[in-house]
Amino acid sequence: MKSIKLRYNYIVLIIAAVLLSSCGDMDKKTDQTATTPPVKDSVQTQHTPKQDSVKHILFFGTSLTAGLGINPEQAFPALIQQKIDSLHLPYKVINGGLSGETSAAGKSRINWLLKQPIDIFVLELGANDGLRGVPVAETAANLQAIVDQVKKKYPKAKLLLTGMQMPPSMGEKYTKAFAAIFPALAQKNKMEFLPFLLKNVGGIPRLNQKDGIHPTPEGHKIVAENVWAKLKPEL
């Protein structure tokens, strides 16, 4: 009986030792849990790199800018965007061309487009005025009003003006007076100036659609080069 009792006490001591050891391990784990800061999710700790600020180029004009008769991606503003993308420049082109747009209509429409940020403004207007025989002084005043609105809203914006010419059928006096609008406007407002948007395209049948006015996709490639030569130094 004595031996059985001793054996029983021995077993009790072993069990007690095991329990105390387990509690110690649990306390140690509890302490580690309490003192070790939680590991944050990797997604939470990552910082999104700040993207370069994208600047905006607004092409404001007629059906020549809109790309009448061809796919929008074939129009010269879209081709300019392709050039910009190939150079990895932080600029986004906005095509604000509208078929049939006159300088008077453009004056009324420009404020709506200026609701978005504009860093470079390319003005291509006046052709429809000329084809309709609108008085030169009226066209000049409307174009100046458009430029004034752009400068007022975005005084730091760079400005580019594209010139236009009328066919001889409009009469020598009118065509000369009309062509003179653009260099005078550019000089007055210190705008970068492209004397003739349709240089090496206008009057060449294979580069124009059947109407003889609007460039083909191949014609727009040349127009894009004309504009790019003046625009690239401003980027």
Structure commentary:
With 235 residues, the protein is α/β, with parallel strands linked by helices. Helices cover 51% and strands 11% of the residues. The protein has nine helices and five strands, in the order H-H-E-H-H-E-H-E-H-H-E-H-E-H. The protein has helices at residues 2-35, 42-45, 63-66, 76-86, 103-113, 127-132, 136-153, 172-189, 217-231, and strands at 55-61, 91-97, 120-124, 158-162, 192-194. A five-stranded parallel sheet has the order 2-1-3-4-5, with helices on both faces. It is globular and about 50 Å long.
Query: Mean pLDDT score, rounded?
Result: 85
Low-confidence region ranges: 1-51
Count of strand segments: 5
Count helical runs: 9
Give the CA-CA distance, first to last residue. Answer: 103 Å
What quaternary form is this?
A: single chain
Beta strand %: 5-15%
Helix content: 40-55%
Instruction: Sum up the overall morphology in one term.
Output: globular
Structural class: alpha/beta
Cα gyration radius (Å): 36 Å
Give the strand line-up of the largest sheet. Answer: 2-1-3-4-5
Report on the biggest sheet: 5 strands, parallel
What is the string of helix and strand elements?
HHEHHEHEHHEHEH
